[in-house]
Specification:
The protein is an alpha+beta fold. The protein is built from 6 helices and 3 strands.
């Protein structure tokens, strides 16, 4: 803690709570609602595994619906030993890089490796 006490960060202790500007818009899921949504797909079926992987990307990564539609496997890359969704076009054309938890990447890998070529086409086609 000596760096905080003597260094350039010493002023951080004097900063009061950050003021909140604006209001959260839209409907936000509670933790319980997120859990129920996460467990809703039938993971015994390929379509259920696909749905759960998509929900993982939406819930854990905070990807917007329109971003998920444009998401391609080429967007998922490893950067500095962490997985991320890289160069995804977001709101107003902004390019975003979004961190991806390891467990989400593992779900996507499991979905991709567990299906044959015909089944992969069905999964990606949204059937």
């Amino acid at each position: 803690m000596w760096f905080v006490e003597r260094g350039p960060c010493r002023w951080l202790r004097r900063v009061k709570g950050v003021k909140k500007f604006g209001v959260r818009l839209g409907n936000w899921l509670t933790s319980e609602q997120s859990q129920r949504l996460w467990h809703a797909p039938d993971v015994e079926r390929l379509k259920g595994k696909r749905d759960q992987a998509l929900l993982a990307v939406l819930l854990a990564c905070g990807v917007r619906r329109h971003e998920a539609i444009d998401l391609d496997l080429d967007h998922i890359q490893q950067r500095e030993e962490h997985w991320a969704i890289v160069d995804l076009k977001g709101k107003a054309g902004h390019i975003r890089t979004i961190p991806m938890p390891e467990w989400v990447k593992a779900l996507l890998d499991e979905l991709g490796s567990g299906s044959g070529p015909d089944e992969r086409q069905t999964v990606s086609a949204g059937a």
